[in-house]
């Protein structure tokens, strides 16, 4: 029986604000809380329990205790719970979208889009659950049989980001639960409320006690270090910056812990000479400005062939100037605020440095005064390839447009980065586009398409952008071990 010990009312919706451990909502052992802000106003909208390392270890105790029974439930039982959770998300979609907009800032219709996207991971993984099969065959010399089976990795720490607070959680939780792993969820400190609401729905869907544990904290580094020192934890899955990913991989090493890392990007958006320019402008608007540019699959650098650069820029700059920047609850808003003052200062520093390096601002280029952390949608060009704005992930509504004189030059520029998460290629000649897509070093390439994210497709990067894939047919493998049994045919 779950008892809510604490709740808050956020935009008229009741949201749990406690920790969830072993099937119980409770306060943190330190009785402390941290503030959650609305980035459109800077106002505090809730105080959420701040898990201590003792709470995190309680969550691991619960996850470890529940592992055997959850790992041995029938696939159909797990599938039905996930499917029920999908239905619950869909029936609460308006509330979830409103909570996300309140704590993350993006326009309400885009939050509703994230709810549908996020829910689909549960439906997708529910459908995968009944298809977890091993193999049976003979050893090459015929002496014995080779049987393989899949077993859950074990208790998993899932660390989720603030930019898609629901979907980045369901992408991990869906795969983990489908595989039979128990979980400890650490949401981003900026956006814990969406996940708290989801955890309550998961309990309502029938997830047994201890299978999903929820430990928001303001001390993320200390929490992950404590948990990862404990060999009962068998898996860490993280979405966030490459710097934090490196630290987590170092912490994972002593216990040889399975690790999935969805890290930073520096996505090139390549427009070849024969591209349909209007289609490229449409694609670039999505790839750049979806989620206000706060996405690891955002187009960071738009690399356009010199022969069509002016026409592209004229159209793209106009569309950028037409974007309506406003709080997420304003009808017709296209772009909400950045997540916090720190991120807005960072974006402004990148733009200022680019101007120092010789860049020209064609639109925006400044914060918007008043409450909240709004930033004007921006286009900069004449950017040297070495400028920080072209080498670092921007994570804001700022488009960098670079020109190239050939396909080869465009591909060279696209690959001139330690990152390799996503790329986009626009060309009319499909063979030419496919050739470029093959040469670009990225885990995902959108061809004549500005969005690649899809639950049924494997999401993940190469190089400094990460390890492993989430979603698609292989997403569940991140939470499974292959076990091989050699079956002798003769009696000893
Ligand atoms: C991300 O920004 O982390 C990914 C967003 C997506 O799945 O599209």
UniProtKB/TrEMBL annotation:
Pfam family, one: Aldedh
GO molecular function terms noted in the UniProt entry: succinate-semialdehyde dehydrogenase (NAD+) activity
Tree of life domain: Bacteria
GO BP annotations listed: gamma-aminobutyric acid catabolic process
UniProt keyword annotation of Amino-acid biosynthesis present: no
Aldehyde dehydrogenase domain location: 25-485
SUPFAM superfamilies: ALDH-like
Family membership noted in the UniProt record: Belongs to the aldehyde dehydrogenase family.
Listed name of the protein: NAD-dependent succinate-semialdehyde dehydrogenase
């Amino acid at each position: 029986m779950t008892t809510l010990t604490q709740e808050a009312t956020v935009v008229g919706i009741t949201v749990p604000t406690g920790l969830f451990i072993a099937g119980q909502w409770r306060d943190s052992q330190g009785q402390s809380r941290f503030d959650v802000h609305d980035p459109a106003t800077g106002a505090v909208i809730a105080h959420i329990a701040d898990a201590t390392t003792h709470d995190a270890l309680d969550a691991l105790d619960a996850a470890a205790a529940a592992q055997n029974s959850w790992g041995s439930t029938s696939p159909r039982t797990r599938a039905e719970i996930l499917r029920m959770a999908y239905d619950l998300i869909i029936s609460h979609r308006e509330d979830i979208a409103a909570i996300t907009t309140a704590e993350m800032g993006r326009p309400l219709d885009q939050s509703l889009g994230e709810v549908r996207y996020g829910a689909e991971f549960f439906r997708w993984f529910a459908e995968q659950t009944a298809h977890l099969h091993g193999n049976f065959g003979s050893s090459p010399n015929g002496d014995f049989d080779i049987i393989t089976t899949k077993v859950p990795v074990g208790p998993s720490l899932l660390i989720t980001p603030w930019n898609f607070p629901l979907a980045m959680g369901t992408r991990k939780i869906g795969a983990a639960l489908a595989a039979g792993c128990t979980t400890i969820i650490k949401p981003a400190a900026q956006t814990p409320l969406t996940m708290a609401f989801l955890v309550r729905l998961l309990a309502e869907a029938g997830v047994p006690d201890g299978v999903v544990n929820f430990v928001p904290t303001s001390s993320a580094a200390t929490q992950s270090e404590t948990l990862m020192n404990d060999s009962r934890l068998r898996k860490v899955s993280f979405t966030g910056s490459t710097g934090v990913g490196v630290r987590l991989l170092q912490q994972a090493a002593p216990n040889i812990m399975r690790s999935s890392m969805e890290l930073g990007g520096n996505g090139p958006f390549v427009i070849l000479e024969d591209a349909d320019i209007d289609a490229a402008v449409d694609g670039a608007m999505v790839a750049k400005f979806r989620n206000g540019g706060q996405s690891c699959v955002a187009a960071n650098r738009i690399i356009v062939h010199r022969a069509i650069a002016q026409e592209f820029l004229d159209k793209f700059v106009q569309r950028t100037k037409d974007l309506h920047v406003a709080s997420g609850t304003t009808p017709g808003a296209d772009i909400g605020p950045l997540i916090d003052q720190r991120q807005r200062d960072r974006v402004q520093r990148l733009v200022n440095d680019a101007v120092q390096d010789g860049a020209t601002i064609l639109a925006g280029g400044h914060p918007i005064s008043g409450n909240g952390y709004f930033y004007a949608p921006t286009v900069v060009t004449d950017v040297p390839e070495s400028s920080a704005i072209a080498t670092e992930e921007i994570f804001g509504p700022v488009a960098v447009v670079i020109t190239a004189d050939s396909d080869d030059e465009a591909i060279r520029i696209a690959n001139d980065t330690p990152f390799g998460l996503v790329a986009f290629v626009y060309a009319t000649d499909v063979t030419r586009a496919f050739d470029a897509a093959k040469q670009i070093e990225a885990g995902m390439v959108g061809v004549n398409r500005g969005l690649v994210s899809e639950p049924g497709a494997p999401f993940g990067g190469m190089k400094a952008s990460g390890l492993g894939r989430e979603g698609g047919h292989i997403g569940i493998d991140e939470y499974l071990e292959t076990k091989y049994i050699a079956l002798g045919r003769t009696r000893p």
